[in-house]
Please model this.
Amino acid sequence: MKKSLKGASRTSLRLGFAASLMVLLLTFASSSIVIPLMAAFRTTLGITTGQVAMTTIAYCAGCAVSLLFLGRISNRFGRRPVAAAAVVIVLAVLYVLGHLESLGGLYLARLLQGIACGLTASAVLAWVTEMAPKRNGNLTAVLVSGGPSIGFTIGALLTGIWVDGFGFKLQSLLAVVAAVCALALIMILPAHDSSMRKPEPLWKLVRPSLKVPERIRGIFWPIVTTVLGGWALGAFAQAFTAPMTAEMLGADNQLASAVAFVAYLSGFAFGGFFLRGAPYAALRLSILIFLASTAAAFACFTAGTYLGYVAFAIPTGISSGIALAADMKLLMKDVLPEERTQVLASLYAVGYAGSAAFGFSAAAIADMMPLSSACWMAFLWLTLLCGYSLISRKLKAYGEAFEA
Model:
């Protein structure tokens, strides 16, 4: 890692951090533009709630495929080219959304969004990690765990305000995002690339691999279950926030949908900044708060109380964000620089694949039962996932050794 930064100017290093962070936020923000609009798409495209949920599966599938097959290519070609490729895919997504006329187009847009986010979750997150200032020890863990959700929050809230608050057309928002993409590409060009660029054969790089260093293999799966719990709830929110909001309010309201979605995602995004003290102790406490506040939020939805749902969604997101940051701090402690993309790709691939499986199950039952029943089935899933992390002896032993 030090070798990759040797000889770089201070300006190039700062630009590298700024460019990597910008691409991270831009990619995930662009992927959440459609979320507040799902209820409107359901009407204009004539699709069902289950088909809306399937669009989330297309997104998760794109992420998982990208991470499985392309998660390590930046080790050979560099972080900057892969970051630029992610931005170009975002531009393609904006074009598809600007000419959206069918469910197939919506599936294509979500699939491309997933591919772009998969590239970002491996190469760009590794770039952010390597370029982040070292003065704040928690900054890297927060950016890795919360960066995607910060982007999600920006995109969803901006869309709700732009379309429903100001009454502007979606096409004008897409044009603004396209201009930001152009700026990101300009920033990438002179930025410092922190990768080692090892001359590994391409066929080995694109071969699906979910290798995790043996020294952290014992804690990987307990950590994955906690991560998957937060992401599964996020996938559920992507698919169902708009129809849930419409059901609670009795009418489609894109700004209200965006606020309900952001209530969870913003807490999830910034929760890592509240991480203090021993990460394992924080992890256990945050999981318990996460489950309690999720139950309260679903109870408010069942009762039809929109403000109560939003109020409890905030601590749900914050506690999930703290748990994820604690997970990342524990997981990345013994990971070497050359292992970073592989570990991140493995973590995100399993997370997205699990979220896709969860989303598929939710989509299958969405048209068969009330949304309130789907919520409580989701809560049972979250309890099982997080419970495994709480009872893991290997994670407990590693966490206590970490804090010693």
In short: The chain has one domain: 7-190+213-403. The CA atoms of residues 95 and 289 lie 41 Å apart. DSSP finds 17 helices and no strands in the chain. The chain has a mean pLDDT of 85.
